[in-house]
Amino acid sequence: MVEFSNGRIHFKVFRNKTLGSDYISELIKSEVESNNLYSKPTVLGLATGGSPKKVYEKLITYHITEGLSFKNVITFNLDEYYPIDSKNENSYHYYMIENLFKHIDINLANIFIPNGMLDRNDIPAHCKDFEDKIEEFGGIDLQLLGVGSNGHIGFNEPGSELSSKTRLVQLDHRTRLDTSERFGGLSNTPKYAVTMGINTILKAKKIVCMAWGASKASAISQLFSKKITGECPITFLKKHPKVELVLDEKAASLINPEFFKKESLFNK
Ligand code: F6R
Fold it and tell me: If you measure from the C-alpha of residue 50 to the centroid of ligand 1, how many angstroms do you get, rounded to a whole number?
């Protein structure tokens, strides 16, 4: 593993996504364990998609083999497609149940995922409730993020604003293309989603963002330009005081090697 900082952001580059995911699941485990020790709740912000699958697998293993308990854990998911039935296999509700929740001892009342089934008119109130709930629980302790090939975080697509909160958004064409295979073609792929905003994400106490594979390399390289721009929403992470970027070698492949040298990297 190689680690270095650029401005406020701390980078850890692992040889592959399994090693990177192991690192992240250990981070989450120790956050939950240390709070459990004092019967304190842990508020996690969770992501879906391909990126966190191995992290969730490992958390399930910790639960089964080491008794890691999620009874005091509250979760807020970043986003959900709209419109989509929560029973649809491609919904993020379904994903979370299948890939994590049904395997651990989390209290179902402690799970919050944006609702993709509401009438459009009811969405603003739902989004406000979602934001209020996060506040009620004292804010998110650790927010897990993936990144889209276009630089989106959550479903905050290019053009998103720093001040954005949980809301209904239109999905970028590239995002729809990236996921269209799962939906059986572009015409079946949702055009909208309900997502936490940039402002919502940046309020988390700690952020861990992961990126695996060459398709993420271009978005990651934007973190090394001086610009913070809604055209590449991941660049907003530069405004947060406690962000860690966990990458595999392919996602790190467009980071200028000169930068690595300058920062005198160390290998472990
Ligand atoms: C998912 C989410 C998205 C994904 C991103 C990467 O909850 O918020 O931002 O993290 O689209 O998706 P994968 O991991 O499938 O490459």
Answer: 7
The verdict on residue 124 lying in a domain is: yes
pLDDT of 197: 98
Q: How many CB atoms lie within 10 A of CB 254?
A: 15
> How many structural domains comprise the chain?
1
Given a cut of 90, whether residue 122 has pLDDT beyond it is: yes
Catalytic residue annotation: 79, 150, 152, 157
Residue ranges making up the domain that contains 10: 2-262
Residue with CA at minimum distance from ligand 1 atom 9: 154
Would you tell me how many other CB atoms lie within 10 Å of the CB of residue 211?
Answer: 25
Phi, psi (5° rounding) for residue 180? -65, -30
Phi-psi region of 21 (alpha: psi -120 to 50; beta: other; left: phi over 0): alpha
**How many whole angstroms separate alpha carbon 230 and alpha carbon 78?**
18
Distance from Cα 38 to the centre of ligand 1, integer Å: 33
In this prediction the pTM is 0.96
27/21 Cα distance (integer angstroms):
10
Rounded Cα distance between 143 and 141, Å, is: 7
Residue 60 structure tokens: 């399930």
Pocket of ligand 1 (CB under 6 A): 47-51, 78-79, 146-148, 152-155
Single-letter amino acid, residue 44: L
Distances in whole angstroms, Cα of residue 14 to Cα of each of 132, 141, 162, 213? 37, 24, 30, 11
Domain annotation covers residue 268: no
| 11 found inside a domain | yes
184 in any annotated domain:
yes
The CATH number of the domain holding residue 61 is 3.40.50.1360
The pLDDT value recorded for residue 226 is 83
Residue among 82, 147, 210 whose CB has most ligand 1 atoms within 8 A, to mutate: 147
